[in-house]
Structures are given as structure tokens and as C-alpha cells.
Amino acid sequence: MSDDVILSVVVGSRAYGLETAGSDTDRRGVFVAPTAAFWRLDKPATHRDGPLPEQFSWEVERFCGLALEANPTVLECLWSPLVEVITPTGRRLVDLRGAFLSERAHRSFTGYAEAQFRRLDPARPKWKQAMHMIRLLLSGLHLVRNGEPLVRVTEHRERLLAVRRGEVPWAEVDAWRAALSAELAGSASVLPGAPDRGRVEDFLAEVRTENLPVRI
Is the separation of the CB atoms in 23 and 13 below 8 Å? Predict the structure, then answer.
């Protein structure tokens, strides 16, 4: 693991409680580029792959920007129950997770699920994709009602895995999707109207200050 990583978590089926014998281990992380690197014309990368298979990381500023937009994948990283690396800076980021939340989650979780739905062919559904579409709606509904996404879906595991195996008729899957979408659209929200951008910017300023070159 690189020295600049402040947070690394397991996401995907293993975090959701939907793993099977053949499931990969998907990892997502956050790293901090040296502050001095931003003084050059060529800026640091906003993300990177690896070094492990199925691993992807964001630079902290990019991660925070996506979280403020209520990106479902990024938000769920902050609530993953499977944390592999967390530094003191990473802990401050996780402790800040409530500041990223807002009613934008209504649109983002619904929008991502609808995008997945449009890519599904009812005649030949990709059942794994259909399962994750339903899981995303369950997570978004829990978020707007309880103030945090539903990452581990143990209560729904058997039914979701039945969808993945293609054992649930498409009409039933579509009805489940429609019902969850309607609930999400009409549900009263406990989320604030806007995220706390000021707290996030203060955190980023502190991180950049801490990563200034050391003068001897």
C-alpha cells in the first residue's frame, strides 16, 4: 500500500454481504498528493488504478468533490464496514461523512439506478446488474430515511441473490424496482437541503497545509 493512502476499504459484493464463492475483492481508496505538486503546470492525478487487482483510488480533493455531489459509490466508501487502511487523516475524513450528505442523494441514487435500468434488456437481462440496481435503490431509500446509506444488505441477501441467479421473473424484478423508485421519490427526507461545504473545505485546507514541504 502506498504511503500516501489515507483510507482503503472493501466495497462491492463483499461489503454488501452479497458475496459468493467466485466474488472478487473490490477495493476503493483515498490518497493525498503532496501540496507542492499542485504548484506545477502538470497537476497530480485525480485518481489511479491498483496496485492490487480491482483497486481504484481517488485523490482526496476529487473524492470530496464527488461526495458533495452525493455520488453513491463514493458515499458508500465512507460507510463500508470493511476498512483495511485508515490513517489519522482518513479517520478525520470518515468522521466528516455527515457533512457530505444532502437531499441531492434523492436524485443521485435514483439517477444511477435508472441509468442501470435503461441498459438492461428485458428479453435478456444481465441479472447481476439487475441485482445491483435494486441494491442501489435500497441503499438510497435507507439513506434519505435514516441519514446513512445501507451498505450491508443482509436482510435482503437471499432475494437479491435469487435475482442475480435469474430465478426471479423479470416482471417481478421490474415491479420491485418501480416500487422502490416511487418510495425513494416520495419519501420524507432526514437529509439537509445542502451539504456542509465549509466543513469540507476546512478539512481540505488542513490536509494541504499538513502536506506542505518541510523547511529545514
Answer: yes
Kind plus residue range of the DSSP H or E element containing 123: none
pLDDT digits (tens, 9 = 90+) for 126-155: 999 999 999 999 999 999 999 999 999 999
What does the domain layout of the chain look like in residue ranges? 5-100+195-210, 104-186
Strand (E) or helix (H) holding 84: strand 83-86
- The string of DSSP letters for 31-79 reads E---GGGGGSSSPPPSEEE-SSTTEEEEEHHHHHHHHHTT-HHHHHHHT
Fold of 5-100+195-210: Beta Polymerase; domain 2 (3.30.460)
Q: Cell 491498483 sits at which residue? A: 50
Q: 44 with 33: CB under 8 angstroms?
A: yes
Q: How confident is the model at residue 22 (pLDDT cuts 50, 70, 90)?
A: confident
Mean of all residue pLDDT scores within the chain:
94
Phi/psi region, residue 31 (left: phi>0; alpha: psi -120 to 50; beta: rest), is beta
pTM of the model: 0.93
